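Homework help board

Subject: predicted structure for assignment chain

Our instructor gave us this sequence and asked us to write out the predicted structure in token form, then describe one feature. I got the tokens but I'm not sure how to describe them. Can anyone check?
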Amino acid sequence: GEHYTSVNDYSVECAGVNSVSFADISGDGNPEIIVTWLIPSSPTDKISVFYYDNSTMTKYIEEEYLTYTVCDIDARIGNELLIVSKDIENGEGYARLFEINEEDVLVASECFMDSDIQSYQKPVLSTLKDGRNAVYIDAAKGTEGTVTELLFCNNEGNLINPFVKTKNDKNTETLRAAHTFSKDINGDGIYE
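My token output:
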């Protein structure tokens, strides 16, 4: 049989691995390893991003998260990691856009999210009417219903949520009692 050797071992307090995926976030042509961890008795789980090169594994990112996606939302070269989460201590919802450049990890931008959100669907990358990339995320807002959070970058590369501008804002613009999800109804590539 085959012989396998562990390259690195990492200790994470969790109930187990939720998922493992691969995506090139750094733009070097080599995919990073994205591992999500199930954290019991917590409203958030953890996400870790690792880079493997020459038998060495380096952890770039470890964050709490509710949902995430890898996408090119800022229309610059390469993908970013977009993480949506909630600060458990103060209850603030936020989105963070991470970039990895030449082994340097930085939060390129962040913005507030509706802190009343209890769970998110998988983010969907689409475009706005003006052609800019945008991420649409449907979310359950308890017994109130469903909202769609919208994230995009302005011309300066700042992450924008047009429905939530401060930590105390609530998204009522897209609130609907029915648990229906946003989608591209007419096939033009823009979510309605």
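Reply (TA_rk): Your tokens look well-formed. For the description, you could write something like this. The longest strand covers residues 56-65. That's the kind of observation they're looking for.
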